[in-house]
Design brief:
Order of helices and strands: HHHHHHHHHHHHHHHHHH
CATH architecture: Orthogonal Bundle
Shape: globular
Helix content: over 70%
Oligomer: single chain
Bound molecules: phenylalanine
Largest sheet: none
CATH class: Mainly Alpha
CATH topology: Hydantoin permease
Number of domains: 1
Strand content: under 5%
Distance between the termini: 63 Å
Number of strands: 0
């Protein structure tokens, strides 16, 4: 009897970790951002660099971040401080936690605006306006929507309030149960859309765009964008996986759980790409449409399908759930920091971080309309927040995590924590985390800066 209960507790904790980590990984990054970045950066070559980054850098760093979390068992800043003390290293390492707090906060500011678009489309899609809509009509509706700061502002406010409500109430347990239902549903929905795309007339062109690499279309900055997208999509480099790792029981295999999460995340991104690009080509649209890509292409498909308004509503609802499970992970490090280190109660910590995010998010809201021309070095505020976080803060945070786990922490400790059955697997991980991940990221930075 006791034994049975024990076994059950272990199993559900492993599942809880996988659900929480995939909830944080799978989100707008897979369905909205991956297709639009692939479209903007020429397709196949970008996708290839993205996949290579996931395998060579994402896998070792996801394992490293989870491992640090489980060993430190606190919020990221305190975990890094404790582990650095344990390894007799400089307290400078706690800044890795800091970096993550700030990155998560900045990402949520615009993430909430885009999630707001998905909420708005949930209500819009069943209107007669979308019935049998063509490419021009869909683009027009999206442009009109995006040009209204009031609309975007209202949806941003609504999404952020819901997120902060979930974080304040600590009801993420309920959210995890939802994730359990939502993820398979999202998968089924994407596969359905893939089948639809197969019959759309643009399938072979779409597949060629996504999967046949043409390196002449990929710039140095494009390579950095692909690398940044790997960190963003997996939710790495900012401490949220560290937080989840800290709840992981010590006998669960970190490597296996991480691989599962990474495989699921990659699958969802690819399925989204396969659904979108055939529609782009079948309707004579351009793949490099920027952040509006899925909002301009998918409604055409929903408008043509039998019962498409219903499928469309379901689809945008699923995106909303995928987004809110990621949003919670994005802000949790900031809330944990304010309540642990600044002595605020959780309620106040949520209010302060939510209000800050809301304010910064207005910069993104206006980047799509009244401040669209307000650019510095050719980038709007939204583009700056995105570039700084995805292309700089997450990769830097991730590499510091890799260096800490590979070089600063003792091998005895990391080996004991990972408990890999085959000692060769540990050696592989060590090589990836010590050499491959840091060197690749450095090369990509140098390449983007035009140094090599
Ligand atoms: N991975 C999430 C997505 O793809 C975004 C995210 C980034 C979540 C960083 C947590 C940390 O939508």
């Amino acid at each position: 009897m006791t034994e049975q209960r024990f076994v059950h507790a272990q199993w559900s904790s492993r599942l809880a970790f996988i659900l929480a980590a995939s909830g944080s990984a799978i989100g707008l990054g897979n369905i909205w951002k991956f297709p639009y970045l692939a479209g903007d950066n020429g397709g196949g070559a970008f996708v290839l660099v993205y996949l290579l980054s996931v395998v060579a850098i994402g896998i070792p760093i996801m394992i490293a971040e989870t491992l640090l979390g489980r060993r430190g068992r606190q919020s990221p800043i305190n975990t890094m401080r404790t582990l650095a003390e344990e390894a007799k290293a400089s307290s400078f390492w706690s800044y890795v936690g800091w970096l993550g707090v700030i990155a998560g906060f900045m990402i949520l500011s615009y993430y909430s605006v885009i999630a707001g678009w998905a909420m708005a489309y949930f209500f819009k899609i069943n209107s007669a306006l979308f019935e049998h809509i063509d490419a021009a009509g869909s683009t027009k509706l999206f442009e009109a929507f995006k040009s209204s700061p009031e609309f975007l502002g209202i949806w941003h406010t609504l999404f952020l309030s819901l997120t902060m409500f979930v974080v304040r109430k600590g009801v993420s347990g309920g959210l995890e149960r939802l994730t359990r239902l939502m993820m398979p549903a999202l998968l089924v929905m994407l596969v359905m859309l893939d089948f639809y795309a197969m019959g759309s007339g643009g399938f072979s062109q779409g597949m060629a765009f996504l999967f046949s690499p043409d390196f002449s279309k990929l710039t140095g900055e494009g390579v950095l964008v692909a690398l940044g997208q790997a960190f963003f999509s997996l939710g790495l480099g900012m401490g949220s996986i560290m937080v989840y790792g800290s709840y992981l029981p010590s006998d669960v295999s970190i490597a296996k759980s991480s691989l599962f999460v990474i495989a699921a995340d990659t699958l969802v991104a690819l399925l989204a790409g396969i659904a979108i690009f055939p529609l782009v080509f079948a309707n004579g649209l351009s793949p490099s449409m920027g952040p509006g890509l899925i909002f301009e292409t998918l409604p055409i498909a929903f408008g043509q399908m039998q019962g498409g308004w219903f499928i469309g509503m379901l689809f945008f609802a699923l995106i909303f759930f995928a987004a809110i499970t990621s949003a919670v992970a994005l802000i949790e490090p900031a809330v944990a920091f304010l309540s642990e280190n600044k002595g605020m109660d959780r309620e106040k910590a949520c209010l302060v971080s939510g209000a800050g995010c809301w304010l910064l998010g207005l910069g993104t809201v206006f980047s799509f309309n009244i401040w669209a021309d307000l650019k510095w070095m050719d980038k709007t505020i939204y583009e700056w927040v995105d570039t700084l976080t995805a292309e700089i803060m997450l990769p830097v945070g991730g590499v510091l995590i890799a260096i800490f786990a590979g070089w600063v922490m003792s091998k005895a400790d990391s080996e004991a924590e990972l408990k890999l059955q085959d000692p060769r697997h540990y050696q592989w991980w060590l090589i990836l985390v010590r050499y491959v991940a840091p060197i690749c990221v450095l090369l990509v930075f140098l390449d983007a800066l035009g140094v090599i």
